[in-house]
Every structure is written in C-alpha cells, then in structure tokens.
Design brief:
Blueprint (H helix, E strand, L loop, with lengths): L14 H15 L7 E5 L3 E2 L4 E6 L5 E8 L8 E6 L4 E4 L7 E3 L5 E3 L8 E9 L4 E8 L1 E2 L6 E4 L3 E3 L5 E6 L6 E6 L2 E2 L6 E3 L5 E4 L8 E8 L4 E3 L3 E6 L1 H5 L3 H34 L1 H6 L29 H7 L3 H7 L3 H4 L1
Parallel strand pairs: 2-11, 13-21
Antiparallel strand pairs: 1-3, 3-8, 4-5, 4-9, 5-6, 7-8, 9-10, 12-14, 14-18, 15-16, 15-19, 17-18, 19-20, 19-21
Length: 338
C-alpha cells in the first residue's frame, strides 16, 4: 500500500526530489577548512630564551607572508615579509635583528626580552591576491624575586586596633596571594584586599588573627614567597595593666595573709594571757622566804616593812590569796591543767 502523501509518476522522479538530493550531495562534499591560528612555543617564555610563533592551517596556493608587531596591519609596524616562489625576505621598520621567518610562515624570536611581550599579526597573500590575517600573542616573563612584608603594627589589641599588611615587590606582571600559617588565607568580613592584592587590611583584629603571615608573588614562569611576619594580638585586659582575674587573685591572696596574721596574733595573745593568769604557775614558783627588811640573801630587798594585808591593794591581796574559782570561770581548762 502506497502512501497517499507521495505522488507517483510512471517511471519519473519528481523535480523537487532531484533538487533536494543535489543540495545534500553538495553539502556533504564541501571540504572543511580549518581556521588559521598562531601558537606560541613555549606559551610562557623566560627572558633571554627563544620563542617560536608557529602557524597552523595555512591556506594553499600562497604568494607569501608578512608579520606585523601589534594587532594592526600597518607598514610602520612591519617586521619581516617572505615571498615563497623567490624565497626572498624583506625587513621592515619593526625588525630588531632577532627575528627569523621560515617558509611555513612561522616566526622565530631569539633572546626575547620583556619588551617583546605583546600581540603579533600575520597576513597571508594568495596568488589570487586574496588576503587573510590572524593575530597571536607572545608572553615573556622574568623570574620573580623574593618579596617582603611590612606591617603597620606588629603588636595590636583585639577588638580595638586595625592592622595593614603590605607585600613589597618590584616585579611587574605578577599576581599576589596571602598565606596564614603556611596555608592560603581565608578572608573574613573583617579583611579587605586592595586592587592587585598588594595590601591586606584587618579591621578590627581578633585573637584568632594572631600568627604568621606571608605573601607570595608569582607569574606563569616562577614564584617567590616572603619570610613569615608574626602578628601578636593582645587582649584588652593585658593592654590596660592587669586582668580582672589577676586583680581578684591578688585581693584574695592579701586577705588570706591578713587572716593568717590575725589568727596567729590572736593565738599568741591567748597563750600569753593564759600564762599570766595560770594559778599553777604561781604555786610552782613561790617567792623565797624572807625576813622583814631582808632579801633572800640577807640583804635588804625592800626599803621598809611589808604593807599590811588589810591595807594592801586588791592586786596584792589577789596575789597572796588567789581566787581559783574566778580563774576557772575565765579559763575553763585551768582546773583541768591543775
């Protein structure tokens, strides 16, 4: 069963079908032309080395090539040109004496300098006088030198001070990154980097910011890292003198010493008072017998006769006739000692 949507002809193919088939065959048979490109070998060259600008996918049936310095085709920027059939070379005003052109269109630079960094344009001319052009780039780098760090303050107070760290370097065409404790620095909302990352500002500083900081400069060819800079972050209490804990500890220590001194003094006072009021002490050491007007050795110990006990004062009577009941009330342990 034939499809009703396709018309049938007796032995003939529809004219529209023939046109479609011819178009498809033409599309499939078209050659794919790769784009003209320039490659720098090596991609990143060290100063003083040789660099080749290699050309890829050159068109056929060419008359010659012409190299220009920059992105514009201008006779004032002409470096060198080459005619393929005659193998002749023509030098331009931008020729430095270090460039060499090859029959395949590639351009060699010897002993490159930092001034060679930039764009270069190749123009190809066909024998039919059709022209094509492409631009490539040459990168020349100098090995970087070791940078250093400068700090606005090496010792700061937390929650109070800000610090600015500056990476010092004379190299150009470099990138800068910061390290903390030999690891890539993780920026917080208190940290700010300048354009180019040459300065790092921390405002305000905190205790966790204390440690070693470094800056590293690098380019695609080499890198250099500074010596560590130690940032000392002190607490607010330490900065004002003594911390609250130190003051409280000192006061407690003084009070303990005062209390111990008072206790020792009171103990000595009680001991002295006990000895002075102990009646046993008086009994154990009675005064030696003496005749009126004579001392123990027969000499006169008193200028006159002893006073009459009846007229003697209370202290004298107490010494002669001690009232042990009173002392027992004052010092309860006196009777125990007796």
């Amino acid at each position: 069963m034939e499809s009703p949507s396709v018309p049938t002809y007796s032995g003939l193919v529809p004219r529209e079908g023939l046109l479609l088939a011819a178009s498809l065959l033409t599309f499939w048979s078209l050659p794919t032309t790769a784009q003209l490109t320039i490659e720098s070998v090596p991609p990143n060259a060290a100063e003083g080395k040789d660099v080749l600008l290699r050309v890829h996918n050159l068109p056929g049936n060419l008359l010659g090539y012409t190299w220009y310095k920059g992105e514009i085709v201008d006779t004032s920027r002409l470096i060198i040109s080459y005619v393929i059939d005659t193998q002749t070379t023509t030098l331009g005003p931008a020729y430095s004496g270090r460039e060499t052109i090859y029959p395949n269109g590639s351009l060699l630079f010897q002993n490159v300098t930092l001034k060679d960094t930039g764009y270069y344009t190749l123009k190809t001319t066909g024998k039919d006088l059709q022209e094509k052009q492409v631009t490539g780039q040459l990168h020349v780098y100098q090995p970087v030198r070791k940078p250093s760090i400068r700090a606005s303050k090496a010792t700061v107070t937390e929650h109070k001070d800000a610090v600015v760290l500056t990476c010092l370097t004379n190299d150009r065409g470099i990138s800068i990154r910061w390290l903390f404790e030999n690891q890539n620095l993780l920026l917080t909302d208190r940290m700010k980097l300048s354009q180019g990352n040459s300065t790092l500002t921390i405002d305000p500083v905190r205790r966790e910011d204390a440690g070693d900081y470094q800056c590293e400069v690098f380019n695609p060819l080499s890198s250099g890292k500074s010596e560590p800079l130690m940032l000392d972050v002190q607490s607010e209490q330490k900065d004002t003198g003594y911390s609250v804990g130190t003051i409280v500890g000192s006061v407690i220590g003084v009070l303990v010493v005062v209390a111990l001194g008072a206790s020792l003094g009171y103990f000595l006072y009680l001991r002295r008072t006990r000895r002075a009021s102990d009646p046993q002490g008086l009994r154990e050491h009675p005064p030696p017998a003496a005749t009126p007007g004579q001392g123990p050795s027969g000499t006169s110990a008193f200028p006159g006769p002893l006073p009459d006990p009846r007229t003697a004062g209370p202290i004298y009577e107490e010494l002669l006739n001690p009232n042990t009941e009173v002392y027992c009330r004052i010092i309860p342990r006196a009777d125990v000692a007796s």
